[in-house]
Structure formats: structure tokens, C-alpha cells
Amino acid sequence: MDKYSTQQLLDLAIDAAKAAGDAILEIYDSGDYKSYEKADESPVTSADYRANEIITARLKDATPDIPIMSEESTLENLADRVHWPRYWLIDPIDGTQEFIARSGDFAVNIALIENNQPAIGVIYWPPGQSLYYASAGKGAFKRSPEGEQQIHVRKLDEPDDSVVIIAISRRQSRDKVLSRMNEERTYQTLPLGSCSLKSCFIAEGKADVFMRLGVTGEWDTGASQCIVSEAGGQILSATFEPLTYNLRKTLDNPDFVVLGDDRVNWRDVVQYR
């Protein structure tokens, strides 16, 4: 019998995400942090490292037998990690560029991966005081100052004709994304920051599709995939193949799409090439 219930693990992830989020927001408001450049030329800050410390300490204390994989920690070799039946997957700050740019569009991502699939997903948006969470088979939920409710992807009035709302990165070319969409459809765009927040907006019905072009890691999609799936959507590679977790030497994702209403023929709408 498992020593941890799903609810215990979910509550732990929520508490860790909120504790890290509170620390991040304090640093964000004060502006007292340092920025660095990683080997891949992506930015990281002292706030990322502080959030990572908080999350990993809480998870290790409560679940010492569950390994942790984080964007801001040293990664195990595939030969060592491939046998993990489950592990925590963390992005301490998804949207570090947005944190630095002071857009407010950054979030804390914590997922529990079981048998190479997301089983728990928690995303906390500190500036918006909004928490998104899900566990496999139990639905997706949002908790905010307005209250708590179950969330679902938006159902289009006419799946074949209704305007499709595209969540798009502020730093991404609108034309580049639209060039990969069926030109016979009509679109609106919703600019946002972090990958996970765009996924959450699809999960709660504020947008319908998001295409991510460029390098991301498995920690960018683990929590989102659980939440979006439980809200009735999907996250797939841009060629409509399933994403994988902890099965390859690299932890880089392929280009991917986050999809809402399952009645839409997304293969016809998203024409990735």
C-alpha cells in the first residue's frame, strides 16, 4: 500500500508552490535580486534559486524517497533516473524573462510524474494570487481571491467555424504563429508571458490553442499537461505525437501545442511545418 495518498501529495505540492511564490513575490516587489546567464544563454535569477531551495526542501522533508528533478538543480544521468517509478518535476519560475521584464506573467510549476506521465499538476501565479491544480482522474481547479471552482476548456459554439483564440507569447511573432494556422479560420490573439500561464488560460476557457515554437524543458509542460488534460484539453507535440517524460537523454521538449475543445479538428487548424 502506498505510504502517501494522492491528496497528501497534492496538498504538499500546493503548499510548496505557494511558499515559493510568496518568496518570489517579495523579491519581485523589492527588486533586490541578481541575474545570471546559463550555459544555454537563457536567464536565471537569484529568485529562481531561492524558489528552488524552498520547494526542494519541503518535498525532501515530506517525501524523502521520491526523487526530484528541477530546472535549477543538477540532473541525474538517464541510466540512473530511467528506473524512477515516480518523481517530482519542478520549474521554480516559469517565465524568468517575464520576471525580469516586470510583466507579472510568471509562475511556479510543480508536477508529480508517475510511470512517465503527469499525475499531479500545480501552477501558482503569485502576482495574480491564482492557483491552478489537478490530479489524474479528479478534474482541474482554480483557486483565486474570487473563490475556488472547477475549470474546463472553452466549448466553441461552432467547432468548425467559430473564432479561435490563440494564446501567444509577447516575445513571439504573431505572423509566425498565424502562418502555421489554417488561413481559412478566423483568429484572435491573447498575448501572455509564461508557457504555463498560457496553458492555464486554455484550461479555464480564456483561450483555445497555444503553439510553442522553441526550446522548452519537460518541467515546462509536466504540471500544465495534468491540468489541461483534466480540464478537457490536450498537450501534444506540434506534429500531434504524445510528449514523453524521463525517457530520453535530453529533457528538451519538441515544439508543442496546447489544445482546447476536443470537438475541433485541430489537425486541420494547426498546420505545423
General description of the model:
The strands form 4 sheets. The chain has a 7-stranded mixed beta sheet with strand order 3-4-5-6-7-8-9, with helices on both faces. Strands 12-14-13 form a 3-stranded antiparallel beta sheet, with helices on one face. Strands 1-2 form a two-stranded antiparallel ribbon. The protein has 8 helices and 14 strands. The mean pLDDT is 94. Helix content is 29%, strand content 27%. Helix 1 runs antiparallel to helix 2 and helix 6 packs parallel to helix 7. The longest helix is centred in the N-terminal third of the chain and has 25 residues. Strand 1 and strand 2 form a beta hairpin. The protein has 2 domains: 146 residues, Fructose-1,6-Bisphosphatase, subunit A, domain 1 (Fructose-1,6-Bisphosphatase, Chain A, domain 1, 2-Layer Sandwich), CATH 3.30.540.10; 106 residues, D-Maltodextrin-Binding Protein, domain 2 (3-Layer(aba) Sandwich). It has 273 residues and is of the alpha+beta class.
